[in-house]
Amino acid sequence: MNTLTREDILLQAATRFVCYPLSRVQTIQQSGVLGVEGGIFQAVLRVAACKQPSSDGAQKDHDDENDLKHSKQKRLIAALKKINFSSFWKGFDAHILAILIRLSKIAPRIRSAIFSKLNNSTYLPIIFDPLFTYPFEMARVKLASDMSPQNRNVIQVLSKVIDNTGLAGLFRGYHLHILGIALHQVAYFTGYSLLGSIVPVKKDSFMGALVVSNIASTFSSLFTYPIVTVMRRLQLEAAEDEQKTSSQGTIQTVKNIIQNEGITALYSGFPLLVCHSTLAPLTLMFLDMAYDYISKKFK
Predict the structure, then answer these.
(1) Is the dihedral angle over the CA atoms 277, 283, 288, 289 positive or is it negative?
(2) Beta-carbon neighbour count of residue 40 at 10 Å?
(3) pTM of this prediction?
């Protein structure tokens, strides 16, 4: 079994940190919290918006209109102060916990110990392994789609889910997660094989492999993205602040999305997913190059 070094984990975490703002805006669109007209621009504005009390010094700066250049600088500074940059990383704690659990390979080890006779099974890892990360992904979705200024953490979200729906609520929509993984793998490897036979890519060409992999991933996401959208809605329902007397099923959730938002809402945030899948490997490559350069420079 391959082991990851501390450098690998650090680079993975740094890459996720750089790309997470895209992931949060995409989650907001996919969750439908902004309604039908919740485009990318509106989602970014809502995330960046932050109500801050204006100080007397800031008000005094606006009174100085003598120097135009000075006034523009003050207005720019005042505008930047209103942007809540940290809110773009809301839910990152839950995201990084899920990543660390996945990188630690706890699930494969427990699976091998419990199901030792089924170690060669193709489907068991797809069904069993996500059990350890799914609750944290649910918490990330809730935190990332939460537009309120409240500062919540993973424990608070998971506790709310358990209070509302019990332990089973932590795995609400899990069947769609498994279906999405299985369908994504089939579509991805099919698309990758077809592209590999059509597009000539050199074995040592990183960019060529990246382009083919990204196209295959986008192709497979076309089939799985609506499934993930419905799963996100089910997760949010389980994590709602107010407990409901009855919960919606998968079919009813699909009907509500199509009736209230239109069928295109099943693909809300899809362009940002494509951008994220392209940016992440490039970011990892540049961070790896920077780390190697710094290591050699100060060795």
Answers:
(1) positive
(2) 17
(3) 0.83
Helix (H) or strand (E) holding 289: helix 270-297
Alpha-carbon gap, residue 140 to 96, rounded angstroms: 9
How much is the pLDDT for 7? 78
State how far the Cα of 230 lies from the Cα of 31, in Å rounded to an integer.
9
- pLDDT tens for 201-231 read 666 666 677 788 888 999 999 999 999 999 9
Alpha helices in 122-269 (DSSP H): 124-128, 134-145, 154-165, 174-198, 206-238, 250-261
Number of domains in the chain: 1
Q: Is residue 155 part of a domain?
A: yes
Domain span at 246: 6-297
Cβ neighbours, 10 Å, residue 156: 14
Q: Is 158 in contact with 135 (CB distance < 8 Å)?
A: yes
Q: Note whether residue 213 is domain-resident.
A: yes
Contact 88, 120 (CB under 8 A): no
